[in-house]
Design brief:
Layout lengths: L1 H13 L10 H31 L6 H23 L6 H30 L4 H38 L3 E5 L5 E4 L1 H7 L3 H4 L10 H12 L7 E10 L2 E13 L5 E10 L1 H24 L2 E6 L5 E3 L1 H6 L11 H7 L5 H13 L5 E8 L5 E13 L5 E10 L1 H22 L3 E7 L4 E4 L11 H4 L10 H17 L3 E9 L2 E13 L5 E10 L1 H23 L3 E7 L4 E6 L1 H6 L4 H4 L2 E2 L7 H17 L3 E9 L2 E12 L8 E8 L1 H44 L4 H26 L5 E3 H15 L5 E6 L5 E3 H21 L7 E10 L3 E8 L16 H12 L3 E7 L2 E9 H4 L1
Parallel strand pairs: 23-25
Antiparallel strand pairs: 1-2, 1-5, 3-4, 4-5, 6-7, 6-10, 8-9, 9-10, 11-12, 11-15, 13-14, 14-15, 16-17, 16-21, 17-18, 19-20, 20-21, 22-24, 25-26, 26-28, 27-28
Length: 867
């Protein structure tokens, strides 16, 4: 205290006080203490105001607190300067400080004036209390809401952390702000290491760049994007799928990105495997030529692959994609059972759905298709939803199977009716199989043989002989064919036996297969043939006829076999002629060419050729009659022929004598016919002389008829005399001359003749004369009685052959016909009696038809007896 007093004393000594302090130390102390405390209080208030303003930036009219703080600080400074000026006369500084304080205080006063209305508008304490209570309630509700929000955030974070999906949030610059536990577990990283990082270590630089590029495409209109990318997980690149969502503020700018990811590596690998499998399946289907079909059962839509359509000749899109399209293409006969199988499989997938059926192609043809399918999807009730399968063209296979079936059936039927027995035996020679019943051979029952060996069936000698043959094949692996025999019921039966080794797929011999043919009849036949061959050989060598077998070429003949008679004719032996060419044996070329011509003619016609020719020998000319015939040709060998030659020299001499005698007799017979014709002509002349002396018309008519009959017989002999064939006469030509003679005899003026004669109408003399007389009588009656003297008429004569046994002669006219009471059987006129007798003589048949239109007669002769 004394020190302070001393200091103040010093002050009083240095600072003259001009404000009435009277240099009173207590007064100075009072001022110093008061100003100091005031300044301290001002500074404290200012500090509190600034502190509150800094901590409560949301206070209303915050600037007035700052302004009051500045004003109070200035006031505190002026009080400090008051203490300062007690000792130091720096009144200008103090004045400036006060001036500044005055300015701030004035500005503060003005600002407070503007706040007076707001101050007056402040609520009363009661209102504030009510507001406080309301605010307290709102605060309580807000606290509850904040607590619920906090609990919701906890649950949300718990849910996010419990999610198996990978969830993360990014800022626009790529900085991670949130990741869930699944994200950390997946990448095996700590949450603290990842949060705040903008370059996640699990992403490659390329992946980070793709991540930022993916975010750049997001817009308010398209805030979500799903991408797939590979990430590094524990040193392994795995496929993941991320759904990126952008969160925008009110201005449309991106605030954050949220991404949700999941591991799809297994799925991608499965898809890749499925894709590869599909590719392989497609390649396999293309390679196999199969088509695909996929039926949506619920909608009825069906997918038909291009290959499926191509099999039936359709292009893609040409058929409606509906299951009814498939049904309409099925063959009508196949539709019922195909639908039955389909419905059964739709009810139970264990029932197989594969079959072969026919479908119509675009061209209308039917094609065989192999269909294989299965229901691949059913709902929880077992209702089929989807069915898929393949479609294969098996037309070629079906045709091959049908051809194979036909061949197998033909083979089976052939063996069924064949005497060949087929059977198999194992390596122990037990019988295991029969393809044909051994009853065909008439020996054994097949059921009794299966499982037995040869020793159980045959006698000891036969069994051992067969076993030896079969073991030889089993040991050598080489098949054999031989003829063997067995004894059955005391009879020896011969068999043509073939034995071949039977191998499995590896080529190992597992048994033998045999074929057996009963050749007992053939053996007996061979024995008989040997006996007959001996007989024929004896006949061949002892026969008087020349016989042999030759081969021919284009210009020569090779002797294969000639008998003794042939060799003797040529003055040699059969052995010397064998394999000798005719040219080497001295035969002239003309003779060889002649024989070759006959051989070739036989070969061309396939029939024996007979010819005769003279042959000059030292003893003179001999006449030979030869017959050559083709022998069946074997393979490509030269054609072979057999010949039989007979020496007909003596027969030729006899024939020559007979021909000379026949010519003499023919001359004599012609002379006889000529003389008979002349004698008959003499008779006709005598009758003509007699007719000149007779006046009675009836007598004249009888003589004229006799003359015509005589001329008819004479005409026959004249024709025979003029003919080269004395045994038959051309009756058609004869009838023409006969009609001409009758026309001249009766001086026919009003009657014409219609003649229709066939060729080859020949009669021998025994039938020609009676037929000529019959025609003479009938034509004469028509001329005399069928027509009146002034009436013109026609007489027709017709000949023809009926079948092969009958010769028909028809005579008719268009006259007045016969009287109604006419009866040919009772006719008494000479002419008709003569006709009846002549018809009976030649065993002919005469039919007469008469009417007012004329008379028609038909004479039927037996051709074999008259021709």
């Amino acid at each position: 205290m004394s020190q302070i007093s001393q200091s103040w004393g010093v002050v009083t000594l240095l600072i003259p006080h001009g404000h009435g302090y009277s240099l009173n130390p207590n007064l100075v102390s009072l001022h110093v203490a008061s100003d100091g405390i005031i300044a301290l209080a001002y500074f404290t208030i200012s500090a509190i105001l600034f502190f509150c303003a800094r901590k409560r930036k949301n206070l209303p009219q915050l600037w007035i607190f700052l302004l009051f703080g500045a004003f109070i600080i200035c006031c505190g400074i002026t009080h400090l300067l008051e203490i300062w000026t007690l000792w130091y006369p720096h009144y200008w500084i103090s004045g400036f400080a006060k001036a500044i304080t005055a300015a701030i205080s004035l500005y503060s006063a003005l600002q407070l004036i503007s706040l007076v209305p707001q101050f007056l508008a402040l609520k009363s304490p009661a209102q504030l209390e009510a507001a406080n209570r309301k605010l307290a309630q709102e605060i309580a509700q807000r606290c509850k809401a904040e607590q619920a929000l906090q609990e919701s955030k906890i649950r949300y974070r718990s849910i996010l952390n419990d999610q198996t999906d990978l969830i993360a949030r990014y800022l626009p610059d790529g900085t991670l702000t949130f990741i869930n536990q699944a994200y950390c577990r997946y990448f095996d990283l700590n949450q603290e290491d990842l949060l705040g990082s903008n370059s996640p270590p699990h992403l490659s630089l390329e992946g980070q760049e793709k991540l930022k590029q993916g975010f750049s495409y997001l817009t308010p209109d398209n805030p979500v994007e799903t991408i797939e990318r590979q990430v590094s997980v524990k040193g392994e690149m795995r496929w993941t799928q991320w759904t990126n969502r952008a969160i925008f503020d009110d201005a449309g700018k991106i605030k954050q990105f949220q991404t949700v990811g999941r591991d799809i590596h297994d799925r991608v690998q499965a898809q890749n495997a499925q894709h590869e499998s599909n590719e392989r399946l497609q390649l396999a289907l293309e390679g196999s030529g199969d088509g695909l079909w996929d039926w949506n059962i619920a909608t009825g839509e069906i997918y038909l692959s291009p290959r499926w359509l191509g099999m039936l000749g359709y292009a893609p899109g040409e058929l409606p994609e509906n299951v009814n399209t498939w049904g309409e293409l099925i063959h009508p006969e196949d539709q019922p059972w195909v639908m039955e199988i389909l419905n059964a499989h739709l009810q139970d997938s264990n029932i197989p759905y594969h079959f072969d059926y026919r479908m119509r192609t675009r061209s209308g043809e039917w094609k065989w298709i192999g269909n294989y399918g299965k229901v691949v999807t059913r709902d929880e009730k077992g209702t089929p939803l989807r069915m898929a399968g393949t479609h294969k063209d098996i037309s070629d296979r079906v045709r091959s199977e049908e051809a194979l079936h036909q061949q197998e059936e033909l083979f089976r039927l052939t063996l069924k009716h064949s005497p060949i027995l087929l059977f198999n035996q194992d390596t122990e020679l037990h019988y295991t199989w029969f393809c044909n019943s051994p009853a065909t051979c008439g020996i054994y029952d097949p059921e009794a043989i299966i499982g037995k060996r040869d020793t159980d069936i045959f006698c000891e000698d036969d069994a051992q002989r067969l076993i030896a043959l079969k073991k030889k094949v089993l040991e050598s692996g080489i098949g054999l064919r031989t003829e063997t025999f067995i004894t059955f019921e005391g009879k020896i039966c011969y068999y043509d036996l073939s034995i071949e080794p039977f191998r499995d797929r590896t080529g190992e011999i597992v048994g033998i297969t045999c074929t057996s043919l009963d050749i007992s009849d053939r053996k007996h036949t061979e024995e008989t043939l040997q006996e007959r061959e001996s007989i024929l050989s004896s006949f061949y060598d002892s026969a008087p006829l020349m016989m042999g077998v030759v081969e021919v070429t284009e210009d020569d003949i090779l002797h294969i076999s000639d008998n003794v008679a042939t060799a003797a004719f040529f003055g040699t032996t059969p052995e010397a002629m064998r394999q000798q060419w005719s040219s080497h044996m001295g035969a002239p070329k003309e003779t060889i060419d002649l024989w070759l011509a006959h051989y070739k003619k036989s070969q061309a016609t396939g029939k024996p050729v007979y010819f005769e020719r003279p042959h000059e020998t030292p003893e003179g000319t001999k006449y030979l009659a030869a017959t050559v015939s083709k022998i069946a040709q074997i393979a490509d060998d030269r054609p072979q022929f057999c010949y039989v030659v007979e020496d007909i020299t003596e027969r030729k001499k006899v024939e020559k004598q007979i021909e000379e005698s026949l010519r003499e007799k023919e001359t004599l017979l012609q002379e006889i016919h000529h003389r008979v014709k002349n004698n008959l002509q003499v008779i006709c002349s005598l009758l003509n002389l007699q007719m000149r002396a007779i006046q009675d018309e009836s007598v004249l008519e009888q003589l004229r008829e006799s003359q015509n009959r005589t001329r008819t017989m004479a005409l026959i002999h004249e024709k025979l005399y003029q003919s080269k064939n004395l045994s038959k006469i051309d009756f058609s030509a004869y009838l023409g001359d006969l009609v001409a003679n009758l026309s001249r005899s009766y001086s026919v003026q009003n009657v014409s003749f219609d003649l229709d004669f066939c060729k080859d109408f020949f009669l021998d003399i025994d039938a020609a004369i009676p037929c000529g007389l019959i025609v003479n009588e009938l034509v004469s009656n028509s001329i005399k009685h069928a027509f009146s003297s002034e009436e013109k008429g026609k007489i027709f004569i017709q000949t023809h052959l009926e079948k092969e046994s009958a010769m028909i002669l028809k005579i008719g006219d268009n006259g007045k016909g016969l009287p109604s009471e006419f009866n040919f059987a009772k006719a008494k006129t000479l002419g008709l009696k003569l006709v009846k007798n002549l018809v009976r003589q030649i065993r002919g048949e005469l039919n007469i038809e008469s009417s007012h239109e004329g008379t028609h007669l038909k004479l039927t002769l037996n051709k074999k007896s008259k021709g």
